[in-house]
Write a structure and sequence with these properties.
The chain is of the alpha/beta class. It has a single domain (about 5-250), classed as Carbonic anhydrase (Beta-carbonic Anhydrase, Chain A). The chain contains 13 helices and five strands. The protein has a five-stranded mixed sheet with strand order 2-1-3-4-5, sandwiched between helices. A hairpin with a 6-residue loop joins β4 (about 235-240) and β5 (about 245-250). It is globular, with a radius of gyration of 19 Å.
Amino acid sequence: MKQKSSDVPRAHRASARRRFLAAAVGAYAAARTDATWAQLGSAGSASLTKQQRDALSVVQIIDELKKGNERFRTGRLVSHDYRDQQRTTATGQFPAAVVVGCIDSRAPAEIIFDVGIGDTFNVRIAGNVVNDDILGSLEFACAVAGAKVVLVIGHTACGAIKGAIDDVEMGNLTGLLARVKPAITRTQFSGDKSSKNAAYVDAVARANVVFGIETIRRRSPILEELEKKGSIRIVGAMYDLATGVAEIIGV
């Protein structure tokens, strides 16, 4: 009699699915070719286990984020079983990275990098600025929960960047945009320095990412020490709304 898929233990079915970054685990994964990795990337995914996450290097995690973005922009997304991921992470989570991104609806990190539930911590705030609450969240993600990569990601045509350039003042937004101002002063740009110049806005957005990375290192001794020890890496990215490309910077 043919066995129904529902008769197969869920744990067995989940283990058969492709786990986020699982191909990178250990020396076995290090020996795989890019072609093999791409093949595994099309097989589906379940959430990371602690053993899998702990076995990954920061370089492997960054490389998998790059590959996830390539799948996204080329339309070869993994078929995530979100319900299975929800169930398997209900009693614990072991994300490999923590992403600090903008609230812009067009820049959802989980989709841009083609990851699933339980794979990354995600912090979203206008202009991907770094404040005390964000720093505390990053310290929890890395020092307590074991994430190994901190990724600050900005994007093109960012409204928060435009607002900071235009000196917008509105309620609590005024204080938030003030945190972008240092990026404006350090941006080197020849041409029209206004919010109507897309190239200038994007240049400031890139400078803001770099400033965010520097802020994390400067204002969090905990994360600075972890990075010096090689336990984590703090990097940045610029996401292009038009092309779908997330360029990793600061590596």
